[in-house]
């Protein structure tokens, strides 16, 4: 009779295998002129989905990339703005490299401090 490892031991091994890590989707709720969570930490390969809860009231928000976390006016040169789709009220974007992304909402940043950031960590 051959020896067989218990099932639980197989599960334990698998959970420690980095190659099996599945990319996640993180939701950011956009409501009341705020991004929640305001600062989100993710891993490279993960997707962020912004959901505009104010869309039902006809309020448009944008997710616009900034140079830093202080400015409300500067779009980062050479990068796409990833504005929320005005028809759907949601936006999904996958981040593939370790970096810090600062973003803001064009109509509400200066008045309401409507901005956020994403910290992308390497896998
Ligand atoms: Cu806004």
UniProtKB/TrEMBL annotation:
Residues 33-120 form the Blue (type 1) copper domain. InterPro entries: BlueCu_1, Cupredoxin. Keywords: Copper, Metal-binding. It holds the Pfam family Copper-bind. The keyword Mitochondrion does not apply. One of its GO terms (molecular function) is electron transfer activity. This is Blue (type 1) copper domain-containing protein. It comes from Didymodactylos carnosus.
């Amino acid at each position: 009779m051959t020896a067989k490892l218990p099932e639980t031991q197989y599960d334990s091994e698998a959970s420690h295998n980095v190659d099996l890590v599945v990319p996640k989707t993180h939701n950011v709720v956009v409501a009341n002129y705020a991004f929640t969570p305001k600062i989100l930490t993710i891993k490279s390969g993960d997707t962020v989905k912004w959901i505009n809860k104010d869309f039902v009231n006809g309020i448009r928000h944008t997710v616009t990339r900034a140079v830093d976390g202080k400015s409300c006016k500067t779009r980062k040169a050479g990068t796409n703005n990833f504005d929320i789709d005005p028809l759907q009220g949601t936006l999904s974007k996958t981040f593939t490299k370790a970096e810090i992304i600062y973003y803001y909402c064009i109509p509400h940043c200066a008045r309401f401090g409507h901005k956020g950031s994403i910290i992308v960590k390497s896998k």
